[in-house]
Structures are given as C-alpha cells and as structure tokens.
Specification:
alpha/beta; Rossmann fold; eight-stranded mixed sheet; 9 helices
C-alpha cells in the first residue's frame, strides 16, 4: 500500500494545503477518486484513512484533501490549529481548492506516477457539505466522469436560518461549539456575503438538475444532521441520480473521531462497497 503526500497552494491568501493519495503500486492504471470532507472535517478525520485503504484495495487511487481554510495547517493536519483561517473559509474557496488539486493531478508535476492513474476515469465524491461542493464542481468540470455523494447537503441557501443570518449580519462573527475539542470555532459573516455574491453559481439544486454524468447519492436513514429527504429530493430534481439508503446509518455512517478500530464501521463499509461498485461499472 503506497501513500503519497501532496502540498499545494490555495488561490486564496497563498495558503498551503495538504492532500494525499492511497493506492497499490501495480504498474497498471487505476481509476482515480477525489474525496471532499465536510464542515468541521479534515482528510484524516476518524476512519477516513482506513476508508482510503479500502478503496485502494478495491482498485482505485484514492485522493483526499484538506481544504485550505478548514482550520488545520500543514504542520497540524488533524487539529484545528488556525481558527482565523476557519473563520475566513467559504464555499468559493473550497471549490477553488478542489480545482487546484484537480489541475495538479492532471499535470506532469503530479507526485503520483502516470502509470498508476487512469485520468480518463476520474471521479469525485464528497461527504455532507463536501457533497455540496462535489455536486457544484462536477456540474461544470468535464474531467469528472462520475459523482458520488454521502449524506450531502443539497441546498446551501437553507444552510443557515434567517434568524441566524440577521444576528450574524449585526455581529459579523458567530461561534460554533466543537463538541469534541470544546473549541469555540469562529465563522465570519463573509461566508454569507460570498454566497450572496455568487448565488447563481452556488445553487446546488440547479447543479443537480444540470448533472449529466452518472451520480450516486448515499444517505443514512437515521441521519439527524442532514435528513435522508435530501437524497430523495435530489432524485426528484434529476431522475438520473441513483440513491442508496443505508437503513439505520447516521450522518457519519458510524464513524467517530478519534477512531481506533482496525475495521471500518459496518455502515461505512457498506457505503464504500456501494460507491466502489458504482464507480467500477
């Protein structure tokens, strides 16, 4: 099992960000999956590294990334060590970071040997808010041939309530409690301003309607963070969307952080298997 680390520079504030690729060196080209984490997530959260190995054993090059302003740093990739960066994050930054990484993977300077990557089979997937980012990116990026979302947010316009936005507009900064670390994580009003300024291009429902590549939406029936209705609703927007409901699964498909088990949670393993089968079809 080979793991290759990648350091890139964001278009925003010149901030470096990390990615890594997990694959089995075989001398044969393999489909490539790029994974976007969700809100308050990072590439090595919980069982994500085990998940990467599972996809590698299934025959993929699996790439996961830290968004440049997700609050982690290149020195501390699993800790929210830069909360000011977290406060400055927005949807456009995440889309741009994804674009920077895609460009790099398709470039001659990529650290992953070309003999191991089938870039004609380049797939995107995302979890939660990362699912929304993946949908938006896939709707306008011809290099992406298939899309899979896990517990995806399907509308950024309803991401915050009107009451929250009004209070936020006055204070310019709100704080979100991190239950695991007890950190008060700041979010600046600029994320709302960014959405309003780019509202047309950040419409997830419209992006779903415009998706022409095969798309799979996986959701847990017991998801209390993003209710399963979100997946079913996407099917009504575009009948080409395939949906898979995992009965009893929660928002993280059984994953927690830290995760010390050597086996994937049952629900997460089911999500991996369904996604791998979809991508290999």
């Amino acid at each position: 099992m080979k793991k290759t680390n990648i350091i890139l520079t964001s278009k925003h504030n010149g901030r470096p960000f990390l990615a890594d690729a997990t694959y089995i060196e075989s001398g044969r080209v393999k489909p490539v999956i790029l994974f976007n984490h969700g809100f308050k997530g990072f590439k090595d959260w919980g069982p994500f590294s085990l998940m990467a190995e599972e996809f590698a054993r299934a025959g993929f090059v699996f790439v996961k990334m830290n968004f440049s302003h997700n609050g982690t740093t290149t020195e501390q990739p699993t800790e929210f060590a830069d909360l000011e960066a977290f406060a400055q994050n927005n949807f456009s930054m995440e889309l741009d970071d994804t674009g920077v990484l895609i460009d790099h993977l398709f470039s001659k300077s990529c650290e992953i040997p070309g003999r191991d990557m089938d870039l004609q089979s380049f797939f995107l997937m995302g979890h939660s808010r990362g699912g929304a980012s993946a949908i938006l990116k896939a709707s306008g990026e011809p290099r992406i041939k298939k899309l899979a979302t896990w517990a995806a947010v399907n509308n950024l316009e309803t991401y915050f309530s009107n009451e929250e936005v009004e209070y936020w507009r006055q204070t310019r900064r709100i704080y979100i409690q991190n239950a695991r670390t007890n950190q008060q994580m700041p979010m600046d009003f600029q994320i709302v301003e960014n959405f309003l300024a780019n509202k047309q291009s950040l419409q997830v429902p419209e992006a779903v309607k415009n998706i022409t590549v095969p798309m799979l939406a996986i959701h847990g029936s017991a998801d209390s963070t993003v209710p399963v209705h979100a997946a079913r609703q996407m099917k009504t927007w575009n009948d080409r969307v395939e949906i898979e409901i995992i009965e009893g699964a929660d928002h993280t498909f059984g994953g927690t952080h830290p995760f010390n088990d050597t086996q994937l949670p049952v629900d997460l393993k089911q999500a991996v298997d369904k996604t791998a089968s979809f991508f290999l079809r």
